[in-house]
């Protein structure tokens, strides 16, 4: 299972309860940010973007 990473610093996060609406909350121990993502696919897309941005792969045309 892949670890959820902070959208601000990229550090691995851990579960931090739930919001009033029932969404999972996440906490980053590195930058002390608490965030939630309503749609898991948005978070997955963001993680893929981070991997591309900071990775060694080149963009295919």
Automatic annotation (TrEMBL):
Q: Can you say what this protein is called?
A: Transposase zinc-ribbon domain-containing protein
Q: Which organism is this entry from?
A: Allisonella histaminiformans
Traced from the root, the source organism's taxonomic lineage reads: Bacteria, Bacillati, Bacillota, Negativicutes, Veillonellales
């Amino acid at each position: 299972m892949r670890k959820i990473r902070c959208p601000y610093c990229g550090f691995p996060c851990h579960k931090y309860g739930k919001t009033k609406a029932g969404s999972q909350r996440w906490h980053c121990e590195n930058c002390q940010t608490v965030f939630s993502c309503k749609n898991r696919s948005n978070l997955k897309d963001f993680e893929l973007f981070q991997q591309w941005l900071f990775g060694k792969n080149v963009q295919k045309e």
